[in-house]
Amino acid sequence: MKRILSFPKKAVIFDLDGVLLNSRPNMEQAWQGVQDNLGVTVSFEDYFKNIGRPFRDILELIGLSDLADEIEPIYSQVSKEKFHLATFYPGVEETLKKLESYGIKLGIVTSKDTERTGIVLNRLQVKFTAVQTPNAHFRGKPAPDHILMAIAEINADPKESIYIGDAEVDVLAASRAGIDYCHAGWGYCEPGCDDVVVLKDISRLLTVLKID
Length: 212
Hints:
The protein is α/β, with parallel strands linked by helices. The chain has nine helices and eight strands. It has helices spanning 24-38, 44-48, 55-61, 68-81, 92-101, 114-121, 145-154, 168-177, 204-208, and strands at 11-14, 21-22, 87-88, 105-109, 130-132, 161-165, 180-184, 197-199. Strands 5-4-1-6-7-8 form a six-stranded parallel β-sheet. Strand 6 (161-165), helix 8 (168-177) and strand 7 form a beta-alpha-beta unit. Helix 1 packs across helix 4. The two termini are 24 Å apart.
């Protein structure tokens, strides 16, 4: 049985990679840069299966935390150089503009770093009231910290908000934050449970929110 969502909504908060942005080709090139420069043998698939968590958390999970200070700048630099490989999913900007036109506040909670998140969001002609990226003050997903901070920035209650993600860590973070959740069925990962609402494409969000 699918979870029952509450209405109306004042805020919609999105994950970035795998939800608004198809950045897998970009990530693959960035990881190749890490392998080429540092001789890392961990495959991209092993890296990618942990996507959704903060970068250094992923490195710890795949046994590369001791090289984090060397890996992170290389990955980030190659990612920026190959940023043209990251593209928005169909319907993203149109859906965001429609939400905005209905007075719904938009937010971002992502495990992508602040600089590259800014590059992405500058390509969209909408306003994001809250943008939460990894920092030393709050725990990353699946902890609820960044979602709760985004809700606070937007000046909304959890029951007035909804989070759109594409990974099991997103489901867990939303649940721990006490916020409704929809899963991006076009994204990278399965939700890890069968009771969440799964969207076939981003425009379906408008129907779910009853503003289509």
